[in-house]
Amino acid sequence: MKILVVSDTHGRHDYLKRALAFEQSVDRILHLGDLEGGEEEICQLTSCPIDMVKGNMDSLTNLHEEMLVQAEGRRILMLHGHHMCLSSGKEKLYRAAADFNADIVLFGHTHQPLLEEYHGITLMNPGSISFPRPLGKTPSYGVIELNQGKTDKFEIRYIVG
């Protein structure tokens, strides 16, 4: 199963369209918040299932602030991250993983990509596909390939050119 992971689109979808065209076949999209009203447009970009959570800029939406999804036997915790005190470390993310018995924690908010594994838990922040930080950085997104019973693949990819 191939999953496209995006965050912080802030109502702008040009680079998301490019990522979808580049990836060609995606089985699922996980959006980690700060859509700023772009939910409907994103849903029109593809026919695959899309799961979305609420970010700190999404006050007018009914999306949940966190969501646990399952795919290929993995438990994936999705959240935006603005309640996690990310500037002081990742401890709250690991505690949330334990609370939800999650194998994978996906978060956004910082607009900076991160991919790391600690004690069997994978943390991924795909960065921002629309407004990367610091300014001038390359828009980024994540790709997860889950292969039940085999090695999973996690990668941060960049929109170039």
TrEMBL record:
Q: Which cofactor does it need?
A: a divalent metal cation
Keyword check for Glycoprotein, yes or no.
Answer: no
Q: What class of enzyme is it?
A: hydrolase
Q: Does the keyword Ubl conjugation apply?
A: no
**What sequence ranges are listed for the domain Calcineurin-like phosphoesterase?**
1-148
Q: Name one Pfam family in it.
A: Metallophos_2
Report the InterPro entries cross-referenced here. Answer: Calcineurin-like_PHP_lpxH, Metallo-depent_PP-like, MPP_YfcE, Phosphodiesterase_MJ0936/Vps29
So what EC number does this one have?
3.1.4.-
Its keywords, alphabetically, are: Metal-binding
Q: Which family does it belong to?
A: Belongs to the metallophosphoesterase superfamily. YfcE family.
Recorded protein name is Phosphoesterase
- Name the source organism: Brotonthovivens ammoniilytica
- Source taxonomy: Bacteria, Bacillati, Bacillota, Clostridia, Lachnospirales
